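Bench log, entry 3. Co-assembly request; chain sequences pasted below exactly as received.
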Amino acid sequence: MPLITSFTSYMPKLVKGTKETLMTKQNNDNKGGKPTSNRRKNPSDLIRDKTRTYNKLIDAVGQVLKEKGYHGLTPPNIAKATGSDKRLVWTYFGGMDSLIETFFAQRDYWKGSSRDFIADLLKHPDQIKQDDISALLNNQFDTVLNDVVLQKLIHWELGENKSLLRKIADEREEIGEKLFNAIEPDFENSGVDLRAILAVAIGGIYYLSLHAKTNGSTFCGIDINEEEGKKRIENVIRYMVDTFYEKAKV
Amino acid sequence: MKQKEKQTIVPKSEPKLKKTPSGPIREKTRTINKIISSVGKVLQKKGYSGLTIINIAAEAKVSPKLVYLYFGNIDNLIETFIKQRDFWNMAEKGVIEETLSDLDNVTKEDIVTLLQSQYNRLYKDKLFQKLIHWELGEHTPTLRKIADTREEIGEKLFNVIEDDFVKKNIDIRSVLALQIAGIYYLVLHANTNGSTFCGVDINDEKDKDRITDAIDYIIHLLYAQVGKGD
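Structure output for the full assembly:
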């Protein structure tokens, strides 16, 4: 491997015009965010392209977040991951905070899943059934369990108080609020505090996912890294929602 | 030149003056304890990413060299700290012991008390919150060991209560896993992010009780299903 790495840095002199192949080479080199600074400027920049660099910086936020968590979100780390100069963070974004904000604005952190799901349900608010609610919760469970960047974002929210993080949390609340307004009337006078119960359940989904993916130990003897353990949690979610709907006699 | 010499003399003599008041005789145990308790302070102030020898030594007002001398490395120091603090005892002191001491007779009230005392302890104990947050962010053998020890304690309890629920096809472990995890998440979220969650804000005393009631409600519901309700 080191042979190829040193070879590519001489590539532009030897082969001109095969930009496509050179670019893929460069991407392979960058895996793992290895420092590229002491290498010669990369051939993918045969033609300078501001937009490309701009996007590369934004993508790097996700990559660094995944690999190092939120503590790692610093201009030097972003620079390492992109192979560009750290000063570009300030040139293009005015600073790290605004780069992070751009990243989260571009990337819908709910990746459409839950938001679209809720939007669909709200088209016919009076027809929301218990199966819809358990499907929604299990859909969230799936999303968090499979999306490392989302896990890191949730972890960050639990560790630092930043206005950006607060904004993301508040936006999430707004989406949920619409749903609660639609289903809450069903539970009136039933003695079921739907919000409190779902708060515990959704918080539980987040925590279990994060715990399983980082700590790796079981939790109450359940390992949701195994298909069987994950199924058990899904079944309990369905069981609980069913029980509450039964209590409320919807 | 003369002035410069004077300046270097003054700061040199200062630490010597500071050292004497901490005790007439130097004491290794005292310094060791000071370093260990500084781990907690740093964790609380800066989170787990701030746990470096330099930060801990500065907090304890000792030389970083002493930390290496007494503990060898940072991992060793952290492990010592965690052992002392008894972090796997999730509930408030005594509650688990009490429940475990009378294993033949664990009632639904015991389970409710256990869950609620976990909720209350975590709610009050900032250091405990930071530890939980750390567990979610990093994978180290020490953290894994804490989690595993906690599991062992829980296992004793599950072995006793599980049978009743298995007969009725209720997966009590999964239900409690979700409830306990939910408690942890809500407390951490409320303490750092501060936004509401599902419209519930447990920084507010009234909403904090709503969560307590919801847990109480679920446990009673489950026990009613196995015919041990009121």
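The CA atoms of residues 2 and 29 of chain A lie 10 Å apart. Residues 113-248 of chain A form one domain.
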